[in-house]
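Module 6 notes. Inverse folding takes a fixed backbone as the condition and produces residue identities as the prediction. Think of it as a translation problem where the source language is geometry and the target language is the twenty amino acids. Below is one complete input and output pair. Work through it position by position during the lab.
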């Protein structure tokens, strides 16, 4: 793993690709990008014929120059809008149960072990290094209930150079549902519960202050308020968390309508609310900076409410399939004005790769009742993996594309000789056949944070 200091300026020349919307995929065969000494994109120019011409035109003669080979291209860094850092050791196992049973059998025992800080350090270091290797420049992480381990994840992300949202998880309620459709005796084992609302809120406030000491402006590492899902919190705790996010101007992440049994559970626990989404709305959880993971089992009123509040959805196709949750209607969400990005959802999802999530998103979009209306295009997949994710995370002003003024969060991809294919085919081959071996360099905020030699 490499973390480099910022050079004075950087100039790149070669093939460059990015999206500006779900329908706009731009591929420049020969273009120049300049990055200033603060890691900010100074220009993108596809009219110059060489790096030398660009350097003279933009006064970048003192820049470090990278000339891309014909087998390489630059692409914005990938954005994982939903990943459980603590569950990484379980990736690839436990694919035999639906959500609530899966949590009880596999997830809670693993997450409870993060009281051991040595274990937490090993896992979290591996997670951040691995996701960077896969081109993830930004990740929205769920940690665990443990304050010290959550703080450790913040340190590791800062040290290794990843842009990250760090969420100390809230799990307080152990309510019993009356509805027999739920078939759960209790929601979580007693060994993995917080003792009180006061303890739950206090630990999150401490986590916020800890991250503030690392990154005072939350420019790269940000706290994110993280009620695991509505059934894990009392109504009063949800409201307190919504108010805390508003007071501190912080983003929020949680789960929504992932599984039918889960939605039945919410109806049983919150009978006064008209829907699962309404539970969050009443608690001030739906904001312009809220990430809602999954959002599969929604009606049109819920979709429209999410759009009205400006919240975003993390589409997690791998885990949705693996634990039999269902298929999110991504185009239906986008058409309703809902922001959508991609999530790997480790370890419900078996891979930490956003590129793999894009592949899965393509496949499941073809399985809905009318594929002609639900099928995702290449442009849409690449948008979801980058700018769409940035919009969901509330960082579209800083990341997700190569517009001047944004941070240089980027990956250099090399897929071998490409003389046989046109530019669109090159990107298709990468999306559907690429992996971490093809990602040669990764930058965040202008700094080289990973290099695959």
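Target side of the pair, the amino acids:
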């Amino acid at each position: 793993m490499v973390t480099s200091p910022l050079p004075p300026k950087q100039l790149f020349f070669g093939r460059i690709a990015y999206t500006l919307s779900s329908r706009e995929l731009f591929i420049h065969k020969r273009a120049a990008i300049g990055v200033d000494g603060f890691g900010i994109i100074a220009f993108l120019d596809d009219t110059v014929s060489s790096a030398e011409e660009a350097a003279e035109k933009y006064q970048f003669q003192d820049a470090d120059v990278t000339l891309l080979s014909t087998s390489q291209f630059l692409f914005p860094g990938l954005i994982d809008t939903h990943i459980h850092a603590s569950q990484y050791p379980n990736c690839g196992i436990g694919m035999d149960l639906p959500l609530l049973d899966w949590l009880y059998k596999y997830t809670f025992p693993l997450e409870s072990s993060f009281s051991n800080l040595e274990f937490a350090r090993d896992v979290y270091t591996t997670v951040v290094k691995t996701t960077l290797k896969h081109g993830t420049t930004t990740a929205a992480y769920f940690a665990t209930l443990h304050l010290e381990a959550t703080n450790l994840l913040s340190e590791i992300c800062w040290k290794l150079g990843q842009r990250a949202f760090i969420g100390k998880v809230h799990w307080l309620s152990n309510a019993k549902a009356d509805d027999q459709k739920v078939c759960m005796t209790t929601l979580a084992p007693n060994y993995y519960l917080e003792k009180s609302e006061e303890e739950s809120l206090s630990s999150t406030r401490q986590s916020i202050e800890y991250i503030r000491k690392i990154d005072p402006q939350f420019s790269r590492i940000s706290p994110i308020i993280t009620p695991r899902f509505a059934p894990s919190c009392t109504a009063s705790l949800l409201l307190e968390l919504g108010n805390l996010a508003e007071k501190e101007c912080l983003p929020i992440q949680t789960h929504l309508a992932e599984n039918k049994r889960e939605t039945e559970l919410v109806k049983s626990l919150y009978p006064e609310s008209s829907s699962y989404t309404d539970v969050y709305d009443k608690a001030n959880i739906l904001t312009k900076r809220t990430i809602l993971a999954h959002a599969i089992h929604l009606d049109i009123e819920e979709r429209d409410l999410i759009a009205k509040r400006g919240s975003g959805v993390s589409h997690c196709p791998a885990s949705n399939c693996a634990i039999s949750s269902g298929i999110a209607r991504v185009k239906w969400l986008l058409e309703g004005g809902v922001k959508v990005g991609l999530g790997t959802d480790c370890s419900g999802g078996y891979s930490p790769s956003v590129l793999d999530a894009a592949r899965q998103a393509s496949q499941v979009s073809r399985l809905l009742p009318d594929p002609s209306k639900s099928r995702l295009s290449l442009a849409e997949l690449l948008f979801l993996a980058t700018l769409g994710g940035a919009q969901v995370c509330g960082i579209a002003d800083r990341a997700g594309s190569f517009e001047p003024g944004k941070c240089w969060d980027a990956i250099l991809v090399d897929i071998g000789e490409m003389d046989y294919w046109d530019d669109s085919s090159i990107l298709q081959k990468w999306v559907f056949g690429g992996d971490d071996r093809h990602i040669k360099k990764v930058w965040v905020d202008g700094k080289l944070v990973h290099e695959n030699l």
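Reference fact for the lab report: The chain has 16 helices and 18 strands.
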